[in-house]
Amino acid sequence: MINPNDVKKLREITGAGMLDCKKALEESNGDIDRAIDWLREKGISKAAKKADRIATEGLCNVVYNNAKAIILEINCETDFVARNSVFNNFLHKLSNILLNSNVDTVEEALNIVTEEGKLSDLIINMTALIGEKISLRRFQTIVKQDDEIFGSYLHMGGKIAVLSLLKGDNIEVAKDIAMQGAAMNPKYISKEDVNLDDLEHEKAILKEQAINEGKPINIIDKMIEGRINKYYQEVCLEEQSFVKNNDITIKQYVSSNDCQIIKVIRFEVGEGMEKRNDNFAKEVMNQLK
Questions:
Q1: What is the largest CA-CA distance in the chain?
Q2: Is 79 exposed, middle or buried (0-12, 13-18, 19+ CB in 10 A)?
Q3: Beta strand residue intervals within 23-174, DSSP E
Q4: Is residue 182 a part of any domain in this protein?
Q5: CATH code for the domain in which residue 28 is found
Q6: Residue 16 domain boundaries
Q7: CATH number of residue 124's parent domain
Q8: Does residue 35 lie in a domain region?
Q9: Does 220 lie in the same domain as 147?
Q10: Cα separation, 98 vs 85, whole angstroms
Q11: Phi, psi of 103 (to 5 degrees)
Q12: If you ran DSSP here, which 8-state letter would residue 188 be given?
C-alpha cells in the first residue's frame, strides 16, 4: 500500500503529476529515491525544471453551449509546439473541462479534479510529455440569457480568439462581430463606453497637434471635434466600418439585423507578456539538454 504522504513528497521533489508519482512508488516498492530515478528515466521529472521558463507562444480557444461560453489562452514556449496536434488536443480538452466547471479564476481552475487527477497535474504531465513549459494563462466566462446568442472566431488557428455576446438570434451576425473584433481590435463597444480620462488625453494631444500645425485658434475646437470622431471610429466597435461592407458601420449592420452587441472579448496569444529572444538554433539546443 502506497503512503499518500510519500506521493505528495515525491510530487514536491520532482514536479511530476500525482498519478505518475503513485506509479513510480509502486514500481519502486515505496522507495522514494528509486522512484525519483524511475521518473527521471521516464523523463517525467523534467517538468519541474521547466517551471521558470518563459512560455509566450500557444493558442487561444472558444467553446460554448446553450448557456455558457469560455474563452481561454494556453501557453507553451515555441510556435513549433503550438502547431503540434498533441498540444491542440490538450487545448480542447482543457476548454471542455473549464466549460463544464463553475470556477472563475486560474487558481480555482488548477484545482479542478478530473478522472486523471487535478487540472494542475494534467498540465504538469503535458509539460513532461511535450518537453516545454505548458501553462493555463487566463480564461473568461460568459453566461447568456435566453434572448442572447454567442458568436466566435479563431484567427490563424487560435493565435487570436474572439467571443461575442449579442442580444438577438442571428448566429451569422454574432460570428461577424467576433470576426470584426479579431480584425480591428476595438477598445470599446460604443462611444458611451469610452473612458473619460482617455478621451481628455486624446483631445489634449489633438489640440497640441493643431497648434503645432499652425491652425487658427478659432477653428481648433471644430478640428478637434472632427478628429475625435475619427478616434471613435478607431477604438469603438459600433463606429467602425464593417469589414465585409465598408459602406456601413457595425452599428448599422447590427441594428438592421435586430441585434444588439452586449460584450466582445478578444484574446491574442502572448499579448502583454515578455517575449522570448532565443533564436531557433538555440531553441533546438535547449531541447537537447
A1: 88
A2: middle
A3: 57-64, 68-76, 113-114, 117-118, 135-143, 148-155, 160-167
A4: no
A5: 1.10.8.10
A6: 4-49
A7: 3.30.479.20
A8: yes
A9: no
A10: 20
A11: -90, 160
A12: B
Nearest to 249 by CA among 266, 224, 232, 264: 232
pLDDT per residue as tens, the chain (289 positions) = 889 889 888 877 776 778 888 999 999 999 988 888 888 777 665 555 555 566 789 999 999 999 999 999 999 999 999 999 999 999 999 999 999 999 999 999 999 999 999 999 999 889 888 888 899 999 999 999 999 999 999 999 999 999 999 999 999 999 999 999 999 999 999 999 999 998 999 999 998 888 888 888 889 988 999 999 999 999 999 999 999 999 999 999 999 999 999 999 999 999 988 665 544 445 444 543 4
Examine residue 180 and state whether it is found in any structural domain, yes or no: no
Beta bridge partners of 58: 75
- Backbone phi, psi, residue 77, to 5°: -95, -30
Cβ–Cβ < 8 Å for 108, 129: no
Residue 100 falls inside a structural domain: yes
Element (H, E) at 248: strand 245-249
Q: b/e for 172-204, b at 16 or more Cβ within 10 A?
A: ebbbbbbbbbbebebebbebeebeeeeeeebbe
* Cα(124)–Cα(21) distance, integer angstroms: 12
What's the domain count of the chain? 3
Sign, CA dihedral 94-95-101-105, equals positive
Task: Kindly list the distances between the CA atom of residue 116 and the CA atoms of 10, 40, 76, in Å, as whole numbers in the listed order.
Answer: 18, 21, 21
- CB-based contacts of 276: which residues, under 8 Å, 6+ apart? 54, 56, 57, 77, 78
Cell of 118: 487535478
**Whole-angstrom Cα distance, residue 203 to residue 27?**
69
